[in-house]
Write a structure and sequence with these properties.
Blueprint: E1 9-13, H1 17-29, E2 33-37, H2 40-46, E3 54-58, H3 66-70, E4 77-81, H4 86-95, E5 99-102, H5 107-125
Parallel strand pairs: 1-2, 1-3, 3-4, 4-5
């Protein structure tokens, strides 16, 4: 994938090709580097040699669900789903995810969630802290080369 941008890397994991392409365009338009994966397995194969500051992760995928992938990582996750039913919402709440979005969503909403997740990770790790698997160390993870839409609060990413 394209690594020419200087912001933190955002990983997009979704089994829907059109959703992956759409998210990739939105994330890169904000100045972040982005990688996209059709499955949790593809992401896990990429991970050993790479780092991600945040995952935008579909919940309902074959092979391994977004919840199952989350259990293996120490990185802020923004869940995305078309199935915002009560059991799914309850599980998201218990998961400690940095956020969740119901498909379809507005580009500024996803960028705001990403910025909050990256901020939460930065606040926990700090510039000199050790980075857990699935994260990226940057000099300024909050400032991609171009500005993001929306305003941020603090996220509650998975510790």
């Amino acid at each position: 994938m394209n690594d020419i941008l200087n912001g933190p890397t955002i990983a997009i994991v979704d089994d829907d090709p059109s959703m992956r392409r759409s998210l990739l365009r939105v994330v890169r338009s904000a100045g972040y580097r982005a990688e996209m994966f059709a499955s949790a397995r593809e992401f896990l194969e990429w991970l050993p040699g790479n780092r991600a500051a945040c995952l935008v992760l579909d919940i309902h995928m074959s092979e391994m669900t977004g919840f199952e992938l989350q259990e293996r990582l120490a990185v802020p996750i923004i869940f995305i789903t078309a199935h915002d039913d009560a059991p799914t919402l309850a599980r998201i709440e218990r998961s400690g995810a940095a956020g969740h979005l119901q498909k379809p969503f507005d580009p500024s909403t996803v960028l705001r969630a990403i910025r909050q997740a990256v901020q939460a990770r930065h606040d926990r790790v700090g510039d000199g802290g050790e980075l857990a698997e699935g994260t990226i160390q940057t000099t300024d993870p909050l400032s991609p080369p171009s500005s993001c839409d929306g305003s941020g609060g603090s996220g509650s990413g998975k510790p």
